[in-house]
């Protein structure tokens, strides 16, 4: 059922009357967004190569002094093409060809900045913990075959391209990294952003291959605005999103690979919440389909040995700083989502809601600098009226660290009498 379920939007449109549907969508997605019209050529390419094509427009208020800053963002979700048992070059070449076709579609739709899904040029094989053949997909971030292709496509179609790959860093001991490379519309390599947070949950055995990234929260200032890349699992960490905003990002891409049995209830919330909290646009991108591997694997979670990760549910979408969002792409089809945005909305939302003004970074910086210390004592006020009469409390206190004993007055307070125990404390 999960794989066959197309999308929440399709289900709503099928079962809810038109007038009620309009109100349901307003509640779920914020304001109603205008759909984009595409050329017949673009529609024909989507039809010929069997991928979903959707487009929406997110506007900002008209200003007297500042003209609109219009950008067309494209995100691509796709399934693998060849079987995972095929030779590595055949798998990679097939994906190169598939993505080149979808990138042409993005060009025909006027996309300025395009982002692919996490590790797009390979199966998401990190569940297996096998080093061969999967490590063979790793390549140099500037001169590897995938990056050379992206440079060619970026120059040909006059668009910026964000390409998340498995990177091999030959300079630093051939280490592997989960990395997104950024290429300008001139076909030049601008830089990279590595995955800051690595999962250790379910079949996501990625730390077998690579560890947490070391590039921080890089923002790329482009012809079409300031962009950043928060790869996959980083979306679960609000501080990660926050730092891209602190560094001035206006669009943050979240290229991902995640499955329905694990994260789907969170999917529509996290990137959208980040857009609101940080006053920028977010683009949540997920791959599609079920990838089956030659050998069974387990992940120490009590489940029987299996050969697939589960269903990658697609559902890619774009969220705006005012809380609105586009409908998602399908849960089971390759797709291209094009969203035309006005970056003035970022500043307008900051002016209206004042989230950045009221953010209190100084307070959190001070608190966190204390919290990371080994001898940190959490600031907790305990209700001693209820704690002191616990039969094991006084024995437990004897084993507490001396620093904590000094911070409390448990040892100097006598246990409650029967009368005190029955009378609740007065609250003034």
UniProtKB/TrEMBL annotation:
Cross-referenced PANTHER family: BETA-UREIDOPROPIONASE (PTHR43674:SF2), NITRILASE C965.09-RELATED (PTHR43674)
E.C. numbers: 3.5.1.6
EC top class named in words: hydrolase
Domain of life of the native organism: Eukaryota
Database matches in InterPro entries: Aliph_Amidase/BUP (IPR050345), C-N_Hydrolase (IPR003010), C-N_Hydrolase_sf (IPR036526)
Pathway involvement of the protein, from the record: Amino-acid biosynthesis; beta-alanine biosynthesis
Protein name: Beta-ureidopropionase
Entries under Pfam families matching the protein: CN_hydrolase
Similarity annotation: Belongs to the carbon-nitrogen hydrolase superfamily. BUP family.
Annotated signal peptide: none
Organism: Petrolisthes cinctipes
GO molecular function, one term: beta-ureidopropionase activity
One GO term (biological process): beta-alanine biosynthetic process via 3-ureidopropionate
Keyword Hydrolase attached: yes
Catalytic activity: 3-(carbamoylamino)-2-methylpropanoate + H2O + 2 H(+) = (R)-3-amino-2-methylpropanoate + NH4(+) + CO2; 3-(carbamoylamino)propanoate + H2O + 2 H(+) = beta-alanine + NH4(+) + CO2
Domain CN hydrolase: 71-343
Keywords assigned by UniProt, alphabetized: Hydrolase
């Amino acid at each position: 059922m999960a794989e066959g379920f197309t999308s929440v939007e399709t289900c709503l449109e099928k079962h809810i009357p038109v007038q009620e549907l309009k109100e349901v969508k307003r509640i779920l997605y914020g304001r109603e967004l205008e759909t984009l019209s595409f050329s017949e050529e673009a529609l024909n390419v989507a039809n010929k190569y069997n991928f979903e094509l959707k487009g929406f427009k997110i506007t900002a208020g008209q200003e007297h002094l500042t003209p609109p800053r219009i950008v067309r963002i494209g995100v691509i979700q796709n399934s693998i093409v060849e079987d995972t048992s095929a030779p590595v070059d055949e798998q990679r070449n097939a994906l190169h060809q598939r993505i080149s076709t979808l990138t042409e579609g993005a060009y025909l739709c006027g996309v300025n900045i395009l982002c692919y899904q996490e590790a797009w040029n390979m199966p998401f094989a990190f569940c297996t913990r096998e080093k061969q053949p999967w490590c063979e997909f790793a390549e140099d971030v500037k001169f590897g075959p995938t990056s050379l292709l992206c440079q060619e496509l970026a120059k040909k179609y006059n668009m910026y391209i964000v390409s998340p790959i498995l990177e091999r860093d030959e300079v630093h001991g051939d280490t592997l990294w989960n990395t997104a490379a950024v290429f300008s519309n001139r076909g030049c390599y601008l830089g990279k952003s590595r995955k800051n947070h690595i999962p250790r949950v379910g079949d996501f055995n990625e730390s077998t291959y690579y560890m947490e990234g070391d590039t921080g929260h890089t923002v790329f200032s482009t012809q079409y605005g300031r962009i950043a890349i928060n790869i996959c699992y980083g979306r679960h960490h609000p501080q990660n999103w926050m730092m891209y905003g602190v560094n001035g990002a206006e669009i943050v891409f979240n290229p991902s690979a995640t499955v329905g049995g694990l994260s789907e209830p969170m999917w529509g919330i996290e990137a959208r919440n980040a857009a609101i909290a940080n006053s920028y646009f977010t683009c949540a991108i997920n791959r599609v389909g079920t990838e089956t591997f030659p050998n069974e694997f387990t992940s120490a979670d009590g489940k029987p040995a299996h050969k697939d990760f589960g269903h990658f549910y697609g559902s890619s979408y774009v969220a705006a700083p005012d809380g609105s969002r586009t409908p998602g792409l399908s849960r089971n089809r390759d797709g291209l989502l094009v969203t035309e945005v006005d970056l003035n909305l970022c500043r307008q939302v900051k002016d209206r809601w004042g989230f950045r003004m009221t953010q209190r970074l100084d307070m959190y910086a001070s608190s966190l600098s204390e919290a990371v210390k080994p001898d940190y004592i959490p600031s907790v006020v305990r209700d001693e009226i209820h704690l002191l009469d616990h039969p094991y409390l006084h024995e437990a206190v004897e084993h507490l660290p001396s620093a904590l004993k000094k911070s409390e007055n448990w040892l100097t307070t006598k246990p409650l009498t029967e009368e005190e125990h029955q009378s609740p404390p007065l609250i003034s």
